[in-house]
Amino acid sequence: MTQRAAFINARLVDPETNLDTPGALLVEDGRIADMGPRLFNDGRPQGATVIDCANATLAPGLIDMRVFTGEPGAEHRETLASAGESAAAGGVTSFVMMPVTEPVIDDAALVDFIRRRAAATAKVNILPAAALTQGLKGAHMAEIGLLQEAGAIAFTDADRTVTSSLIMRRCLAYASNFDALVIAHAEDPALAAVGHMNEGSLANRMGLGGIPTAAEAMAVERDMRLVELTGARYHLGQVSCAAALEVIAAAKARGLPVTCAVSAHHLVLNENDVGEYKTFAKVSPPLRTEEDRKAMVEGVRAGIIDVIVSSHDPQAAETKRVPFAQAAYGAVGLETLLPAALSLHHEAGLPLTDVLRRLTSNPARVLRLTAGRLAIGAPADLVLLDPGTPRRIDPQSFRSRSKNSPFKGRLLQGAVLRTVVAGRTVFEAQVS
Amino acid sequence: MNGHPTRQHLLAIAPLQRHQIESLLDLGNEYVNLNREVQKKRDTLRGRTLINLFFEPSTRTQSSFELAGKRLGADVMNMSVAQSSVRKGETLIDTATTLNAMRPDIIVIRHQDSGAVALLADKVSCAVVNAGDGAHEHPTQALLDALTIRRRMGQIEGLTVTISGDVLHSRVARSNVHLLTKLGARVRLVAPRTLLPAGARDWGAEVFTDMRAALKGADIVMMLRLQMERMTGSFLPSQREYFHFYGLDREKLALAKPGAFVMHPGPMNRGVEIDSDIADDIDRSLIQEQVEMGVAVRMAVLDQLASKLPNAERNA
Predict the structure, then answer these.
(1) Is B233 in Cβ contact with A140 (below 8 Å)?
(2) More exposed terminus of chain A, fewer Cβ within 10 Å: N or C?
(3) CB of A146 less than 8 A from some CB of B
(4) What 8-state DSSP symbol labels residue B126?
């Protein structure tokens, strides 16, 4: 029997086509069957569950290209199920899972396991990325062809840079063989090893070792040369500073197949948010200066930054309630991704569709997904949201198992009212 | 055949003209028939000394040259690096001049460095045959491959030959591309990008990374040997991944022309670049025939070089 659901009285926003119109949308068997301003003008849909959107914004579900889970290996931090709950609450209908697990996802059988386990336990689409090098060790390339056949969406060493330029070149060349996407982390490991936060006067004052922006810019420079040699599809997992952004902009101007993302916290926060040694603000790459943060906002506006990610990285209290230098890197972000990104709309004046594009159709294009758009035939992965609703961030209300949010106590705008994956509602906000 | 005005070498296929290649193949073909008789011995090289100087281990090529020299009546001496003074620190050129002082007529050299054979050829007064130098050329391998193909298919002109495997490190691939394109074949190279040299497109061959596309409509599939050390993660992730995408099995071979032949310069890595089932299929595999042609073609090469030695008339 056909499952039908009708979303009426919605503000339809499709970033890909710049659609922004009052209208309705019909879902049939998990896909968008019809949509538009005049849909259901001549009467209510027959045999469909009707959802009255009350003029809220109906957009494609968010696609988050950078999420760490604890499962397998560190289920106390996050399971696939709890990450799915957290994503659904954040309006995220698909996310790319980083292979930093125990064991590392560098074997085709593990990709298959994650996909089955995610389908069985998680509410949203989990797209496993596989390791670029075996064991994330940067020494031997992973079985990119077999991993891709098993369903790995991309190849990445997640939070480490492949140190050897020769191995990186060969990884890129080999990935290009299979037209596979490589997601890189750019930070010269030797330069960064002595630091814990952004290098500068604040780090000096606090007595913490610094990580210079040059560590990031140099690594991106190198990678751009290697992309030029190999023609591989390259996505910079996170850009955090103006110096690195300039390198990306120049590479794009030269026509290289390069895209990049910024983490929501790098758009909203700066190094001062580390404040009194707040370990929840210890992230990799580190929060940078206000000038760098502004450059990130401008990078999004100019279209040099293609994608906004959460970099959701759940950490247990015991790895964060320690002196700053000893604390683990990482911040949860699935449930703050939308309101943090929307600050670009509210505070920097970007049109809503431009912000949502970085969260929907752009990641879909980079990942070659059919989701991420409101189009007939596309998967009915949707988010119903109110961009203006103010809220104070309370990590205790998070569905994630970990609460290490640098946004704790901050006022942001934007609320997820309902999240739909393949036509099925997986999250509905409590009416207050 | 080129080099010193008073003597000639066989250092590479690249400088040869089509008619020079064809005359070597014609002569080689005659030696195939001789080698199938009971009385295989000729005295063409009687009194001549042939030195096999192998800096890299080889069973097949070295014994093939040894047999070729002996069947033509030459005295053959084998020198491999394990026994030579090169290990004791003597330079390459010292070794060459020392050997040269023993007055050999032909030296057959294999060396792991590209260009090393040409370097030695300059320092000696005898004829030199390149038995493989680094990733540069292996001319007698290309000649024996061509003779094998010509005997099976009648001609080389117009055939589609797919060469698959470690093109980057392969002297066999380089010599074969030169030779087969000179003789009018369409040559395709297929390998993962990490094993394709950057400028492969300039060689006059079509370059593929998809094995299936490269096999479509091929008359001949030439597999290259893949060194085991390439498969531990630097060039390729693993043996199983390589075999899955680039190993020749029945299913992939079915994409080539019906009855297409399979060749391999040996030694084979069964289950890595080629399935045993195909390697041993007498209807499809020319691998044993290649070995037979190897002796014949090397006899032709030695015969021609000896006939052009400065003192050749005294021997006649």
Answers:
(1) yes
(2) C
(3) yes
(4) S
